[in-house]
């Protein structure tokens, strides 16, 4: 199950890349900017601004789950099933309703990836698996990575590493670059903001480092969670001392994905304003330099 294939990306690894977004994640980060990626199954998104008065095509497609109320459509998401989602996928003329997620075979995905191989060869690019968490679907991740390696395509994975090691290990020979999140090293704070285990992530990072894999650490800087000097210093020291990495990317928090929660009918519980603290970003860059790391600020 994937939810997007993005060609000509320049922000998800070196060179020009094709990013394959897999659905499913084992974390519940409050600030997630791709909430449609969390579920391993399809999601229905609804934008009432695009809905046409008097149109009832979606009600005809899924009468048990969609009804017209005085203030617009009422969607009973708990009643949606695969047959209804199949019927809803092509029905809305304005795309007020859209279904996120589709099943594609390895051959279908690779056919898209292969189209841009000349650009990869010239720019040092390749394929990047993203999500969600790609290793939540270890068989698909392994198949795509091994197929890409067989065709001489550079491979990268954007990962939170919050999965069992046995999901990652089979793919190790086929990954050229891990773009790995290190959100926090404080177990209690990590659990409260992500519903996950910081120890699992840190243990997997150590295993990747011990295996000699190339790692770029990514740190999303979230107000109230880790956008403070003590947290940044602890994260940076762990990356430098325990992982022996060279590159660390700091990603200042933004709210560009906030509206997706409305489309999914979900609450948004992260800060409602982006991070605006140039002094803190300067501190992060300085701490990284002091620990022998090259810091990059990514928008």
From TrEMBL:
Pfam families the record matches: Radical_SAM
Keyword Oxidoreductase: yes
Keywords: 4Fe-4S, Iron, Iron-sulfur, Metal-binding, Oxidoreductase, S-adenosyl-L-methionine
InterPro entries according to UniProt: Aldolase_TIM (IPR013785), BssD/PflA/YjjW (IPR040074), Organic_radical-activating (IPR034457), Organic_radical_activase (IPR012839), Radical_activat_CS (IPR001989), rSAM (IPR007197), rSAM_sf (IPR058240)
Descriptive protein name: Glycyl-radical enzyme activating protein
CDD domains referenced in this protein's UniProt entry, alphabetically: Radical_SAM
SUPFAM superfamilies named in the record: Radical SAM enzymes
Domain of life (superkingdom): Bacteria
Organism this protein belongs to: Pseudenterobacter timonensis
The keyword Cell division belongs to this UniProt entry's keyword annotation: no
Domain Radical SAM core positions: 11-290
Cofactor requirements of the protein: [4Fe-4S] cluster
């Amino acid at each position: 199950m994937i939810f997007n294939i993005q060609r000509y990306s320049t922000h998800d690894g070196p060179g020009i890349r094709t990013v394959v977004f897999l659905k499913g994640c084992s974390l519940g980060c409050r600030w997630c900017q791709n909430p449609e990626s969390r579920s391993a199954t399809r999601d229905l998104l609804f934008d009432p601004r695009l809905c046409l008065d008097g149109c009832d095509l979606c009600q005809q497609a899924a009468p048990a789950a969609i009804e017209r109320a005085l203030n617009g459509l009422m969607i009973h998401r708990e009643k949606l099933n695969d047959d209804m989602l199949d019927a809803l996928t092509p029905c809305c003329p304005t795309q007020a309703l859209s279904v996120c997620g589709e099943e594609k075979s390895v051959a279908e995905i690779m056919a898209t990836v292969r189209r841009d191989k000349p650009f990869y060869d010239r720019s040092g690019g390749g394929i990047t698996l993203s999500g969600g968490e790609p290793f939540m679907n270890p068989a698909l991740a392994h198949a795509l990575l091994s197929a890409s390696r067989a065709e001489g395509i550079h491979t990268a994975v954007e990962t939170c590493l919050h999965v069992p090691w046995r999901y990652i290990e089979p793919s190790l020979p086929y990954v050229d670059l891990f773009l790995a999140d290190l959100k926090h090293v404080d177990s209690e704070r990590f659990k409260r903001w992500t519903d996950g285990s910081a120890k699992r992530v840190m243990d997997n990072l150590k295993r990747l480092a011990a295996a000699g894999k190339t790692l770029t650490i990514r740190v999303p800087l979230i107000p109230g969670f880790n956008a403070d000097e003590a947290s940044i210093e602890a994260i940076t020291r762990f990356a430098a001392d325990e992982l022996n990495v060279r590159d660390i990317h700091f990603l200042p928090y933004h709210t560009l994905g906030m509206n997706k929660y409305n489309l999914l009918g979900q609450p948004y519980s992260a800060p409602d304003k982006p991070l605006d603290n140039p002094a803190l970003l300067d501190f992060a860059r300085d701490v990284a330099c002091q620990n022998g790391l090259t810091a990059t600020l990514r928008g």
